[in-house]
């Protein structure tokens, strides 16, 4: 397991690295003393696990989750009870209360191993964690501004701004960007409720389109329509007859 240690106290980092060095199968790949230092390391080193201090100068540990694309497992480290409760409720893999004993650290590492062995569940957990952090920062808990997707063994963050449309095939829901498609852990009904309604519109029972990327509306077969998007492939999203009128009104057609 590749581990990144993030704590603003050098002595705390040294102690934690020493304890980790005594555990089998654990490799400390880096360390940082702030969110600003940690963010580029997370994306460059792609650790499996980040041991993340919460109370740090500048941005707190929760802010790190909003600055990185790579999505590792997270174990929060804190000396403050209320932060520990918040971390636990925010669906962290685990949290450590300072000062902690080696046995407690070993247990947290095992929890992380279990989480990493279940990538789909970890992706869902990280999505819940991001939503909880957003809510704590005063964002609408119903508004989905980013989501976690799996690429190989990595968990990456995808901004909804970058999604051209969401679709469903074979009961699996995907987010389509200009470059690729990524399967997501939401149903289309859930996405319809949580996406920004000013931009995302349900145009078909199997499609939600981002109107920021709408380029043209073309007639289809038997009263249906096709919404052409502005990507290089000029992707066309199906529009059902029942939803065409609403879409035309939104587009001012």
What does this structure look like?
The model has no long low-confidence stretch (mean pLDDT 84). The chain has eight helices and 15 strands. The protein has 253 residues and is an alpha/beta fold. Helices cover 34% and strands 30% of the residues. The strands form four sheets. A five-stranded parallel beta sheet has the order 2-1-3-4-5, sandwiched between helices. It has two domains: 2-135, Response regulator (Rossmann fold), CATH 3.40.50.2300; 161-251, Beta Barrel (OB fold (Dihydrolipoamide Acetyltransferase, E2P)), CATH 2.40.50.1020.
Task: Note the topology.
Elements (H helix, E strand, L loop, with lengths): L1 E5 L3 H12 L5 E6 L2 H11 L3 E5 L7 H4 L8 E6 L2 H9 L4 E4 L4 H15 L2 H18 L9 E6 L2 E6 L5 E5 L2 E5 L4 E3 L4 H7 L5 E5 L2 E4 L3 E6 L5 E5 L6 E4 L1 H11 L2
Parallel strand pairs: 1-2, 1-3, 3-4, 4-5
Antiparallel strand pairs: 6-7, 8-9, 8-12, 9-10, 11-12, 13-14, 14-15
Task: Note the overall shape.
Answer: elongated
Say what the CATH topology of the largest domain is. Rossmann fold
Number of strands: 15
Strand order of the largest sheet: 2-1-3-4-5
Give the low-pLDDT segments: none
Tell me the name of the CATH class of the largest domain: Alpha Beta
- Range of helix content: 25-40%
CATH superfamily of the largest domain: Response regulator
CATH architecture of the largest domain: 3-Layer(aba) Sandwich
Please, how many domains?
A: 2
State mean pLDDT (0 to 100 scale): 84
Gyration radius, rounded:
21 Å
Instruction: State the distance separating the first and last CA atoms.
Output: 55 Å
Strand content: 25-35%
Number of helices: 8
Q: Sheet bearing the most strands, described?
A: 5 strands, parallel
In quaternary terms, these chains amount to single chain
Order of helices and strands: EHEHEHEHEHHEEEEEHEEEEEH
Structural class: alpha/beta
């Amino acid at each position: 397991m590749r581990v990144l240690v993030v704590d603003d106290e050098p002595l705390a980092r040294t102690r934690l690295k020493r304890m980790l060095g005594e555990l089998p199968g654990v490799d400390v790949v880096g360390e940082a003393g702030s969110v600003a230092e940690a963010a580029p390391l997370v994306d460059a080193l792609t650790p499996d696990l980040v041991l993340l201090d919460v109370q740090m100068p500048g941005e707190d540990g929760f802010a790190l989750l909003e600055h990185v694309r790579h999505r590792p497992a997270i174990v929060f480290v804190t000396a403050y009870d209320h932060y520990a409760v918040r971390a636990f409720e925010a669906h962290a893999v685990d949290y450590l209360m300072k000062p902690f004993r080696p046995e407690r650290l070993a247990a947290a590492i095992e929890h992380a191993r279990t989480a990493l062995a279940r990538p789909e569940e970890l992706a869902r957990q990280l999505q819940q964690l991001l939503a909880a952090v957003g809510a704590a920062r005063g964002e609408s808990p119903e508004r989905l501004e980013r989501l976690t997707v799996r690429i190989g063994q990595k968990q990456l963050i995808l901004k909804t701004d970058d999604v051209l449309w969401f679709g469903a095939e074979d009961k699996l829901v995907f987010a389509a960007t200009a470059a690729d498609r990524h399967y997501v852990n939401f149903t289309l009904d859930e996405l319809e409720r949580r996406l920004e309604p000013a931009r995302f519109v349900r145009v078909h029972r199997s499609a939600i389109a981002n109107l920021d990327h709408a380029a043209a509306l073309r007639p289809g077969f038997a009263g249906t329509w096709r919404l052409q998007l502005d990507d290089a492939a000029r992707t066309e999203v199906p529009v059902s007859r029942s939803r065409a009128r609403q879409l035309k009104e939104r587009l001012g057609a």
